[in-house]
C-alpha cells in the first residue's frame, strides 16, 4: 500500500501543467478597422465603425426589399491614404422604416453582423437586417442633423434598442475627433465627384452637386422649393419634400446626390430628383462647406427679371432676414397664431393681402416718447417719425380658411426700423419718399410676392424685426 502511494505521487509530479487558455474579451463585439477586415471571411460576424461620406435615400428595389447604399471611411481607409478610397455599405430590409436616413455627411455609422466581399475593387459590406444585422447613427457634431443636442448614444438605430459597451464611447470619441480633423483639413469630396451647375444642362446621366441653399420657399403643405447656387455662379431650383428633408435651411451647404437637369422647364433652371436621391448637409468642421459658403453669395437676377413682368409667374421673396437668424426654423401662420409655443421669436413666410392704413401717406406717424402717443405726420413740424403699419397676411397653411392674420410693423421701439428702404419721414411733405413707400407697398401686395420675416411676440401681437426689403 505504501509503495502504490509513492508511485502515484511521483506520477502526479511528473505530469506537465496545462497551458492557460487565452483570456476571453469582455466585449460582446470586436470591431475591425475598414482596411483590416478579413475579405476571406464567409461568416456574417463583421462589426465596424465608419464615417459617412455619401448615402442614397432608402428606396424600394422590388417587392419586400428596400435598400440604402452608403460610402464610409476611417483612419485606415480614406482618400488621403489613397485616392478615391472608401468602403461601400449596402443595407437591406423588408421595410422602408428599418433603413437609415442619412441627413449629414461626416456623421458616424456603426454596423453589426455584416457580410464582406470585394465589389468593383472596393470593400463592400452587405447588411441584412432580416438576419440580425443592425446599424446605428451617431453625431459627429454638438447637435444632430435635426438640431437636438448630441449624446453618447445614437440618434437613430435599427431595432428596438441599441447596445452600448464601454469600448463604444472610446471608439466613437476617437473617430469623432478624427472625422472633424479630417474634414477640416481635406475637401473629402473631390471636384471630380460632383458636377458644376454651369455644366448640368450638358450632363448625359444623373450627377451630384455641391451647392449653397440661398432660399427655402414653402410651395405647399408638403413641399419646399430650394434655390441653390454653386461656385460656378449658376442658380438652380429643386423641389424637396418636407418629410424627406426636414433639416434643410437657407445658408446651408449641401450635397445633392443623383440629380438631373429638367429640359422641360422654361422660366427657370430646375434639377429633378429621383426617389433614391438624397440631400445632405456637412458637419460643422467641413473645409469644403466653409469654402462654398464663403464664396457663394446670394443672387437675385431671376427675381428682378420676374418683377419686370406684369404678373409674377414664379414666387418672389422680397425680403431677407439678419444672418443671426439663419438657424431659426420656419413656423407657418397656423402654428404661429394657433400653436402653443412659448417662444417669443419666430421666422415665418407669408404673402400680404392688404396693408392698413390704405393711404400710404399715413404709413409714417409722429411718436411722442414722453406720452407714448402716436399722431398723424400731416402738418407736423418734426418729432420722431415711425412706421406704423398692419399687414393682413396669409400662407399655404391658412389660405383656405376665413381668418384674417395681422403682422405688425411698428418701429417706435426700434423693431423693424430697417424694413423699408426709405427711412421714416413725413410722407405728406416729402413726395420722393412717399413715392418710394408707395412702390414698396404695391410690391408687397403684388401677386406671388412673399415676405420671409422674423417676428417677435409681444402681448399677443407679432411685430416684424431684423428683416428688410431687398427689392
TrEMBL record:
SUPFAM superfamilies: Nucleic acid-binding proteins. One of its GO terms (molecular function) is G-rich strand telomeric DNA binding. Residues 36-180 form the Telomeric single stranded DNA binding POT1/Cdc13 domain. GO terms for cellular component: nuclear telomere cap complex. InterPro entries: NA-bd_OB-fold (IPR012340), POT1 (IPR028389), TEBP-like_OB2 (IPR053979), Telomer_end-bd_POT1/Cdc13 (IPR011564). It comes from Strombidium rassoulzadegani. This is Telomeric single stranded DNA binding POT1/Cdc13 domain-containing protein. Its main location: nucleus. It holds the Pfam family TEBP_OB2-like. Residues 11-39 are annotated as: Disordered. The keyword Cell membrane does not apply. Gene3D superfamilies: Nucleic acid-binding proteins (2.40.50.140). Keywords: Chromosome, DNA-binding, Telomere.
Amino acid at each position: 500500500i505504501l509503495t502504490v502511494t509513492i508511485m502515484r505521487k511521483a506520477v502526479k509530479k511528473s505530469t506537465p501543467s496545462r497551458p492557460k487558455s487565452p483570456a476571453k474579451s469582455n466585449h460582446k463585439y470586436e470591431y475591425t478597422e475598414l482596411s483590416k477586415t478579413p475579405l476571406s471571411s464567409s461568416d456574417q460576424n463583421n462589426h465596424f465603425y465608419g464615417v459617412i461620406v455619401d448615402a442614397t435615400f432608402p428606396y424600394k428595389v422590388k417587392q419586400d426589399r428596400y435598400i440604402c447604399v452608403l460610402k464610409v471611411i476611417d483612419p485606415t481607409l480614406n482618400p488621403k491614404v489613397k485616392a478615391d478610397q472608401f468602403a461601400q455599405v449596402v443595407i437591406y430590409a423588408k421595410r422602408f422604416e428599418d433603413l437609415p436616413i442619412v441627413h449629414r455627411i461626416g456623421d458616424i455609422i456603426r454596423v453589426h453582423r455584416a457580410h464582406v466581399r470585394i465589389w468593383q475593387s472596393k470593400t463592400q459590406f452587405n447588411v441584412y437586417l432580416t438576419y440580425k444585422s443592425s446599424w446605428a447613427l451617431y453625431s459627429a457634431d454638438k447637435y444632430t442633423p435635426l438640431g437636438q443636442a448630441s449624446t453618447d448614444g445614437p440618434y437613430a438605430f435599427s431595432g428596438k434598442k441599441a447596445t452600448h459597451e464601454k469600448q463604444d464611447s472610446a471608439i466613437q470619441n476617437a473617430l469623432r475627433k478624427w472625422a472633424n480633423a479630417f474634414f477640416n483639413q481635406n475637401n473629402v469630396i473631390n471636384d471630380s465627384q460632383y458636377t458644376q451647375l454651369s455644366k448640368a444642362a450638358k450632363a448625359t446621366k444623373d450627377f451630384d452637386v455641391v451647392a449653397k441653399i440661398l432660399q427655402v420657399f414653402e410651395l405647399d403643405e408638403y413641399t419646399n422649393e430650394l434655390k441653390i447656387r454653386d461656385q460656378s455662379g449658376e442658380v438652380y431650383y429643386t423641389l424637396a419634400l418636407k418629410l424627406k428633408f426636414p433639416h434643410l435651411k437657407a445658408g446651408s451647404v449641401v450635397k445633392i446626390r443623383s440629380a438631373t437637369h429638367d429640359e422641360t422647364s422654361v422660366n427657370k433652371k430646375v434639377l429633378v430628383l429621383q426617389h433614391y436621391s438624397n440631400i445632405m448637409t456637412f458637419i460643422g468642421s467641413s473645409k469644403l462647406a466653409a469654402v462654398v459658403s464663403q464664396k457663394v453669395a446670394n443672387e437675385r437676377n431671376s427675381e428682378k427679371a420676374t418683377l419686370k413682368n406684369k404678373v409674377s409667374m414664379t414666387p418672389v421673396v422680397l425680403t431677407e432676414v439678419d444672418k443671426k437668424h439663419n438657424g431659426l426654423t420656419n413656423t407657418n401662420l397656423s402654428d404661429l397664431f394657433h400653436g402653443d409655443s412659448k417662444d417669443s421669436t419666430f421666422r415665418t413666410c407669408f404673402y400680404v393681402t392688404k396693408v392698413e392704413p390704405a393711404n400710404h401717406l399715413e404709413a409714417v406717424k409722429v411718436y411722442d416718447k414722453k406720452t407714448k402717443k402716436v399722431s398723424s405726420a400731416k402738418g407736423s413740424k418734426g418729432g420722431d417719425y415711425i412706421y406704423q403699419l398692419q399687414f393682413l397676411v396669409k400662407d399655404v397653411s391658412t389660405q383656405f380658411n376665413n381668418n384674417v392674420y395681422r403682422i405688425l410693423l411698428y418701429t417706435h421701439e426700434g423693431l423693424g426700423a430697417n424694413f423699408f428702404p426709405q427711412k421714416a419721414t413725413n410722407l405728406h411733405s416729402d413726395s420722393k419718399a412717399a413715392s418710394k413707400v408707395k412702390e414698396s407697398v404695391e410690391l408687397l401686395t403684388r401677386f406671388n410676392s412673399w415676405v420671409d420675416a422674423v417676428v417677435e411676440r409681444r402681448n399677443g401681437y407679432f411685430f416684424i424685426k431684423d428683416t428688410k426689403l431687398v427689392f
